[in-house]
Design a protein that fits this description.
Blueprint lengths: L38 E3 L3 E4 L10 E7 L3 E9 L20 E7 L4 E8 L4 E7 L3 E3 L7 E6 L3 E9 H5 L8 E10 L4 E5 L9 H4 L1 E4 L7 E14 L5 E12 L4 E7 L27 H4 L8 E2 L3 E2 L12 E14 L2 E12 L5 E12 L3 E12 L2 E13 L3 E12 L6 E11 L4 E10 L10 E2 L4 E12 L6 E14 L9 E10 L3 E10 L20 E9 L5 E10 L7 E11 L4 E20 L2 E19 L4 E22 L5 E4 L5 E15 L4 E13 L23 E9 L2
Antiparallel strand pairs: 1-3, 2-12, 3-4, 4-10, 5-6, 5-11, 6-7, 7-8, 9-10, 11-12, 11-13, 14-15, 14-41, 15-16, 16-19, 17-18, 18-27, 19-20, 20-21, 21-22, 22-23, 23-24, 24-25, 25-26, 26-28, 28-29, 29-30, 30-31, 31-32, 32-33, 33-34, 34-35, 35-36, 36-37, 37-38, 37-39, 39-40, 40-41
């Protein structure tokens, strides 16, 4: 089948595309005409817990190729009284019964789609090595409906997504489907596997898709954005995002002029007293779309290319332009990225460049990437070699990194790995390791928490899935982590025991005990060395219940040592309730009391405090449909600390006490309202309003080492208003 898409668009948020033609109507109602020619899949087995049992509530999935794209329909049998239909906003964990699909294109990266009975939905890029990236917002169609006996989901994955990702020489999709029943804390899937299993990429269902061909497929998204705050006048921004595909998606070019910050969600306020920066995601449309090839992420400790660096207001006044190019050559993929921005250094421009190549094999891949950043005349280069291998029982991924920054006397090296082996369905082993030389820093264009560290961990898990009285299943885990500074004094080692159990069908219980041998942790972020004492013991218990049709809740208690001797008690409670079909509300509370709180204030210096910390938040969502949503959140945070003494630590780890320092109080009240409505196929409106009051905001009496992204449209300001109108024609 050959589809030729030639379209162009312009708007106030000028998005250019031509709607797909075809008779497929995505309304959640499955008709006999829609199922003609569809393939039926019905061998769903229980994967949570992993019992391989067939559910009494049957699940049927129909899939077929259409002119519009890949059509998927779920038919879920379930008693109406046991259904959970709470709404959740986009990309939040589903709090309702839901259907999931993962679509792979013959390589290691796939796309994830989820639709809940409550009308919530999620989409992400899924990677064997990097997990789920929810910053990706895809253009797809979905709907759900229900009657007395069953509930239904329809999904349409457009042809342009398939054509630009599939290997045109062998157009085979690799699919995985699941269905979650919240009232029983059960999940059923076809084929019988889970995304975190080593064999997942080998067991996906293969489906011959149509060889969708796009001679030329283009998209243009322009915008006019108004923003303002209490300190400056309103500012009118404008710009253009575009992308186009050539030769059935083999070549793809994307570009932006003055990226649209209006598509970004405002960041939450964080009281950060650690020595590492608060890691922010990136919702800017251009930077989050089709970024899977560049996404090399080791559990947020190392991110080789962190797009939030581009446009960081601490070093940039405005992004002039950015562009990406991708070549899909079947089992090999290539990508390049360039960007330029006006530097805060007068007369200078910041420049970024990146090249990526990746080769896929049947059960392995090898990739290389090179980053270049010129920030006000200071040049840094980062080169990586990453690889992965998987089989029925094992999987491993690893990465070698060389960082050459002009602030360093010579290049610095790093290595990370993640390994898992399943001895059986009941017993598995996991291990992770990280080695980063002293002075290692890739934060010019990437992100790493710290250099000067060696850390390796091992974890054994034992899983029991046979129901015993009120316990449906449980997992026991024991682990050890060995850590050290590559220079300086020793870090702490950790030993822990965990148990996770499903009880009373819909409830989950988590218990954890952690013991940390004495030592010190310098947490070096850059040239500033900050020291804090480690936890010596920690007890943690959490209870959650999601199975009620109206509400869900979570309760937790933690008792731990974060200072020299005394204990800290932390209490947390959360609930989310469905008030009506249109409105849900959530409340979160955290109370923490410590008689011995030790935090880094300056190089090799510690402040020892007694402290009370409180956090309360209220959030709500009005759901008038997937294209009409109002979200609000109000939060109060307070840290009240009384100084006991100041401590100094030398390189040998010896502690000396000095005179008492100052007390401090940090107190923040913040609120946000977001409203998004798509009035019709052409007109969409987005309004965001942030309000915060502050007192000693973010510990101004402390030398806070956070390097947060401070752009007005990302950070909650004192009083920020953003409005955007998008019109398509």
């Amino acid at each position: 089948m050959k589809l030729n898409f030639r379209h162009a668009v312009c708007s106030l948020s000028l998005m250019c595309f031509s709607p797909f033609s075809g008779a497929q109507v995505i309304d959640g109602v499955i008709t006999s005409d829609e199922l003609k020619g569809a393939t039926l899949l019905n061998d769903f087995r229980q994967v949570e817990p992993e019992t391989n049992k067939v559910s009494s509530d049957t699940t049927l999935v129909y899939i077929k190729n259409t002119e519009d794209g890949l059509y998927i329909a779920f038919e879920n049998s379930q008693d109406k009284q046991s259904r959970v239909s709470r709404y959740h906003k986009r990309d939040e964990d589903s709090s309702a019964d839901n259907n999931e699909v993962i679509v792979g294109f013959g390589n290691e990266t796939s796309y994830y789609f989820s639709v809940s009975l409550g009308g919530g939905y999620s989409d992400a890029a899924y990677s064997f090595t990097n997990g789920y990236n929810y910053d990706v917002d895809l253009d797809w169609q979905f709907a759900s409906s229900q009657n007395d006996d069953k509930w239904f989901t329809e999904i349409l994955i457009p042809a342009n997504i398939i054509a630009t990702n599939i290997n045109q020489d062998d157009p085979v999709l690799k699919l995985w489907f699941s269905r979650e029943i919240k009232a029983k804390s059960e999940k059923f899937a076809f084929p019988y596997t889970k995304p975190d299993n080593p064999s997942f990429l080998l067991k996906q269902h293969e489906f011959q898709t149509a060889a969708y061909e796009l001679d030329f497929d283009s998209r243009y998204e322009g915008y006019i954005l108004n923003s303002g705050d209490s300190l400056t006048n309103s500012k009118l921004n404008y710009g253009l995002d575009f992308d186009f595909s050539i030769d059935s998606g083999k070549h793809k070019v994307m570009g932006t002029v003055k990226p649209d910050f209006g598509t970004a969600e405002s960041d939450e306020i964080v009281l950060n007293y650690s020595s590492t920066e608060t890691l922010r995601s990136d919702k800017r449309h251009f930077f989050s779309r089709n970024n899977e090839l560049f996404n090399i992420n080791f559990f947020d400790e190392v991110i080789v290319f962190h797009t939030r660096r581009v446009g960081d207001s601490s070093r940039s006044q405005e992004v002039d332009f950015a562009a990406k190019y991708f070549l899909n050559a079947g089992s090999a993929q290539y990508g390049a990225f360039v960007a330029q921005e006006e530097s805060v250094v007068p007369g200078k421009r910041n420049n970024y460049a990146l090249f990526r190549a990746k080769k896929d094999f049947d059960n392995a891949y090898v990739g290389v990437m090179s980053n270049y950043a010129d920030i006000g005349g200071e040049i840094s280069k980062v080169h990586t070699l990453d690889m992965a291998y998987w089989s029925d029982k094992s999987r491993i991924n690893s990465m070698f990194i060389v960082s050459d920054d002009n602030a360093q006397s010579d290049s610095k090296n790093g290595f990370v790995y993640d390994f898992r082996h399943d001895y059986s369905e009941a017993f598995r082993f996991k291990s992770r390791g990280i080695y980063l030389e002293d002075g290692f820093d890739i934060n010019s264009s990437g992100y790493n928490e710290r250099g000067n560290i060696f850390k390796v961990s091992g974890r054994f898990e034992y899983i029991v899935n046979e129901p015993e009285e009120f316990v449906s299943s449980y997992t026991q885990a024991v682990g050890i982590q060995y850590s050290k500074n590559l220079t300086g004094y020793q870090l702490q080692d950790e030993y822990y025991y965990q148990i996770d159990a499903t009880i009373f069908e819909s409830s989950n219980l988590h218990f954890e005990y952690l013991y940390t041998e004495s030592g010190f942790n310098d947490n070096t972020l850059d040239d500033n060395q900050v020291v804090h004492l480690p936890s010596l013991n920690s007890y943690y218990v959490e209870f959650t219940d999601e199975g009620h049709s109206i509400f869900e809740y979570s309760l937790s208690y933690q008792r731990y040592q974060q200072g020299l001797s005394d204990w800290t008690d932390s209490y947390y409670a959360s609930t989310n309730a469905k008030i009506s079909e249109l409105f849900s509300i959530g409340v979160d509370t955290t109370i923490e009391k410590s008689n011995d709180w030790v935090i880094g204030e300056s190089e090799n210096e510690l402040g020892r405090y007694k402290s009370d910390s409180d956090s309360y938040s209220l959030s709500g969502t009005f759901n008038f449909g997937k294209d009409n949503e109002l979200i609000f959140k109000a939060e109060y945070q307070k840290v009240d600390a009384v100084n006991i003494s100041m401590l100094s630590v030398d390189q040998a780890g010896n502690i000396s006490s000095t005179s008492s320092g100052d007390d401090f109080l940090d107190e923040v009240v913040s609120a946000q309202v977001r409203y998004r409505v798509k009035l019709n196929d052409r007109l969409e409106v987005l309004v965001v309003y942030n309000k915060s009051s502050e007192k000693n905001y973010l510990g101004k009496n402390l030398k806070n080492k956070s390097k947060g992204f401070s752009d007005l449209l990302f950070e909650n300001g004192e009083d920020v208003f953003i409005s955007k109108i998008k019109y398509v024609f």
